[in-house]
Design a protein that fits this description.
Layout lengths: L3 E4 L20 E8 H4 L6 H21 L3 E6 L2 H9 L5 E4 L4 H9 L3 E3 L8 H9 L6 H12 L3 E2 L2 E2 L31 H10 L17 H14 L1 H4 L19 H4 L6 H14 L4 H25 L28 H13 L4 H14 L4 H11 L5 H12 L16 H7 L20 H17 L6 H8 L4 H17 L3
Parallel strand pairs: 1-2, 1-4, 2-3, 4-5
Antiparallel strand pairs: 6-7
Length: 496
């Protein structure tokens, strides 16, 4: 009997979604392709490649045990691997790829696509929503999602009387003595160890000692249960906090597993709502977490496909600076917040959303780093950095390189924000309260430097009026700009 070949991307690791949903071992065989062009195309973090490859190989074994014939090829690129096998089959099937590059590559060789249903919102549903809106505000999308999916709703009104509880969910880290949750570690098996041995031959970045990340569905379910049991209750109030006492605070760590399909959004939402209904979980924590899953995650994926493949090249602020040395070496800076954040990336390829946005991306924006270069680095070092995640987050939200198509104002802040939301500043070499002194926090100095050099661009943006008006009142603006020039040059030399 002639069979169909299912090409399974490394982010489609789920038996009940995508091209595998209706698959039958009697009429389908499965192909994985380990692209050598991808492996050698960038200086990936070791943890990132380890997770993607080992998770795929583990899932291939799961399918073999079910009775599927599974082909796992190493080829110069994905298309070449598929073409090597396709002549033996009546057709090649795949879920709609999650990146433009892979979609175009597979389309050219005649792969038949089925709907990518790894999200709660189809691409066509998002487009229909977006085309009905005057502006693409996340809040509007999130409310539409709550109603459409009937999650945390009391009839037509939001449960608890409010759509969000942001005012309750922006607390700084507690004082010393707070008991932070512990996170699971995962024993390495034979497949894991084989991947680790193979990666040793590649020129990669980061470390591979930490065992935070499991590579199976069982590991994903264990992480979900750990979050719901030990972190869900306090997730909301502290979701924006940063502290040296806990690298993950109360975050779920589920994005890594969600983004390859080992666990799905509908499963996560279902289990979270079950735990919430049992009692003991404040609505502020439940709503804050649900918003990340059905709101932000779905919104970002929708934006990626709605704005098109050229969106990643946006650079409306004409930023041209190369990546700063401190992003690739945690020991190259005396800025404690940056050093701590980059060290965590080096160790496990992950930090939560606030260090990503308000430390790393904030600094890149303030220092006028080229957005495409910063995007490339973020994709290389984060374990959950799929293309659809990083392009809107970096180009739209973090760097404001799209001119406000996604976020109406840039997400920039001085040292005072970091001081308020973390415990980094107390032992730092720099003072977040000053802007022109030799020990002034670079974030504080560069915040005003950014406004000064971009003020003309933002003068018609009503959301920037307060900041620009504050800049005009500075009696030491000229000295601040001069200090900012010095800081940027010192950052380029790796001297701050």
């Amino acid at each position: 009997m002639a069979k169909s070949l299912i090409y399974l991307a490394h982010d489609n690791l789920n038996r009940h979604k995508g091209a595998l949903k209706l698959a039958n071992p009697k009429i389908h065989e499965v192909l994985f392709v380990e692209s050598q062009a991808m492996l050698n195309g960038a200086r990936w973090h070791k943890q990132r490649l380890f997770f993607l490859i080992s998770a795929a190989r583990h899932f291939a074994e799961v399918l073999r045990k079910e009775g599927f014939t599974v082909h796992y090829l190493k080829s110069k690129n994905t298309a070449a691997g598929i073409k090597q096998m396709s002549g033996e089959f009546t057709e090649v099937i795949a879920a709609e790829p999650s990146s433009y590059r892979l979609r175009d590559s597979l389309h050219k060789i005649g792969v038949k696509f089925v709907e990518n249903d790894f999200f709660l919102t189809s691409r066509s549903d998002f487009i229909n929503w977006a085309q009905s809106q005057k502006s693409l505000k996340l809040e509007n999308f999130y409310r539409w999602q709550r109603k459409r999916l009937n999650i945390l709703m009391a009839g037509d009104e939001p449960e608890g009387g409010a759509w969000n509880f942001d005012e309750e969910n922006r607390l700084p880290p507690p004082k010393l003595g707070y008991k932070w949750p512990k996170y699971p570690h995962h024993e390495r098996d034979e497949i894991d160890n084989a991947v680790i041995a193979e990666l040793s031959a590649l020129k990669l970045t980061g470390e591979l000692v930490d065992t935070t990340w499991g590579t199976t569905r069982a590991a994903a379910l264990r992480q979900l249960d750990n979050f719901l049991s030990h972190s869900f209750k306090d997730f909301g109030p502290l979701e924006d906090a940063m502290t040296t006492e806990s690298w993950a605070v109360h975050h779920s760590l589920l994005s890594t597993y969600l983004n390859v399909g080992l666990i799905t959004a509908d499963e996560v939402v279902s289990e979270a709502m079950k735990r919430y209904r049992k009692g003991g979980i404040p609505i502020s924590s439940c709503e804050g977490f649900i918003r990340q899953i059905i709101g932000w995650r779905e919104y970002i994926n929708g934006i990626y496909w709605f704005f098109g493949s050229e969106y990643r090249d946006s650079n409306t602020l004409d930023s041209k600076r190369e990546l700063l040395p401190l992003f690739t070496d945690s020991k190259s800076t005396k800025m404690r917040c940056v050093s701590e954040t980059v060290a965590q990336i080096e160790q496990r390829a992950w930090v939560h959303h606030i260090p990503r946005l308000m430390i790393l991306s904030n600094l890149a924006a303030l220092a006028d780093v080229n957005p495409a270069r910063f995007l490339s680095w973020m994709r290389e070092v984060f374990i959950d950095a799929t293309d659809w995640v990083m392009v809107p987050n970096v180009i739209g939200m973090s760097m404001h390189a799209d001119g406000g198509r996604m976020s109406t104002k840039p997400y920039i802040a001085g040292g005072s924000y970091i001081s308020r939301m973390s415990n980094y500043c107390g032992d730092c070499s720099y003072n977040p309260k000053t802007r022109t002194e030799n020990d002034s926090c670079p974030f504080t100095t560069l915040y005003w430097h950014y406004l000064a050099r971009n003020g003309e661009r933002f003068k018609k943006n009503h959301r920037m009026f307060q900041q620009l008006n504050g800049m005009k009142k500075l009696s030491d603006l000229e000295a601040t700009v001069k200090r900012g020039d010095f800081v940027i040059q010192a950052l380029e030399r790796g001297e701050i």
